[in-house]
Predict the structure.
Amino acid sequence: MNFKIPRFALLAVAAAGAIGLAYACAPRGQRQSSLISGDAASKVYVAPGAYDEFYAFLSGGYSGQIAVYGLPSGRLLRQIPVFSQFPEDGYGYNEETKPLLQTTYGFVPWDDSHHPELSQTNGVPDGRWLFINANNTPRIARIDLTRFETDEIIQIPNSAGGHASPFTTPNSKYVVSATRFSVPVPNTDVAIDSYKKNFKGTLSFITADQPGKMDIAFQILMPGYNYDLGHAGKGPSDGWFFFTSYNSEEANTKLEENASQADKDYIAAVDYKRAEACVLGGKAKPQAAEYLHNWVDEGTRTAKSEKKTSVKMLDPRDCPGLVYYLPTPKSPHGVDVDPTGEYIVAGGKLATVIPVHSFTKLKKAIADKVFDADLQGIPVLKYDAVMAGEVQKPGLGPLHTEFDGKGYAYTSFFISSEVVKWKLGTWEVVDRIPTYYSIGHLMIPGGDSKQPWGKYVLAMNKITKDRYLPTGPEMAQSAQLIDITGDKMKLLLDFPTIGEPHYAQAIPASLIKDKQVKFFKLTENTNSWITKSESDGGITRNGKRVDIKMIAIRSHFAPDNLEGVQVGDSVFFHVTNIEQDWDILHGFAVLGMNTSELIIQPGETRTLAWVPKAPGVFPFYCTDFCSALHQEMQGYIRVSPAGSATKLMANVSKKAQAQLSNARAGVR
Ligand code: K7E
Ligand code: CUA
């Protein structure tokens, strides 16, 4: 979330008594003693050696990654690199993973990731995969949860700011992405003040249920608003998708003011079954659009990149019944569908109520044609005809809502810094609890699905100020764990997060933990640079390219003495970790190398490219403490001046040496 708080909203805060900020000003000790109950510690205590009940996946925001925590302990288990290079394990530096970060703009080794989304079966998170969006250069990644690794990234063309993404349909047939920024479609050189004429939004539906085959099924061309968030229908509303939009004013400057004029903006309700029918019926136009699809081959564990050149574009005018607009106050942000699939809840950043739409009423209003207007071919339904109810005086700045599966909804309030619990159907507020401070998303395990595990809500806060030991001008953002098993919410724990945790998802650990890959079978490694045993290693030259094959095993590399490399060569170290045992990793790094190390998991081959710039002898070593003799796990590579007569040499077996001599004879 990046919006500023408008001045009038701040005045409203002052007038309303500023529930959250009042806590912020209270003396520290007072604040804590009044809010933490005595048994909080025991509720989050996970004894050494015991496991947490849930895996929680928190987005890294501008870190571009995902952080995996155990709940209720709040222990950080792992970071999964997705859209940013990660020197800790060589992701985006080694040759096998670099293609994942390729785009039509070139190599993009960073992004801003907002919304982790678990794959679903029948509307329930199933623990197979996790999807996450890239907000800056629109992309969607798929992470495999048997390995906690990014396996696939697809770029979204005709889009800018892939924010309403990658929310899933109930069987993960599709994940979606919508433009936050409208742009010229196709993007071309036009005057910015031709916005109303030339700028468009797109809603993209991406097939997601076949690993390695993500593809853009179709895009829907929309008015030039800013599309913000989305959620699929479920149960009775299965087959529909809901997207919030703001800036229906179509302003192209000072959005803070100019996009806050209208009393209501819109939720776009998309009948995607209708879209499928229109696509089948030839109503979508093929449109030239370049984008990359990158995925990891299972056997070689190497990513490939494929360029696609066209999408199917659906104009709502050519497919009546495809999209309807639901008027929604005011500059909506989140849109969340309750577990029954009947209620569609919006969070209006500047709204004074929480508006809830009814799917039953929506269907009826469409059947009865209760339309207010038509916006660029899209009928606008009458607010009163689709509204189920409004939660009155809920707080200030409602953003996101999750559900506990017991008939209650929990909404985050950025301006008044609190979580508010209210009842579906009666719309009455039943409880509220302050957060520290300025909460964005909140998350209940399964809380956006058909089947929430409604035990905790995790509040993710933008501003922490005085909550932790100060660390200079920038403080870590925070997550706060709140117990929701009783009538009153209880704050249990808070912990700092990595980057900005916009959203998170969590799932019972039992659905993931027993499916973990423990090592990669060497017999199934089809990487063409694999070294299966010590005697297979060696060094070969082909022009200026030098390939070195080596193994890593406790506690040595083989070969570990290499000569014949010259300044300016492109040297590739292909290191295979031939261990066949869980959690036995080796690292590899060379003096002066200007990428990162390799971390090699058991049974896999990883490749590091290096162009030596000066003659000398360069040590390399294992960077991962793997055994008692880890410090002995080292070697040397000699670099000679360009054109030198130094022979290629690797201290490997006679057989390998002979192969090398032959190879050399062939080259020089
Ligand atoms: Cu920060 Cu979902 Cu990107 Cu709201 S978003 S907070
Ligand atoms: Cu291998 Cu340390």
About this structure: The mean pLDDT is 93.
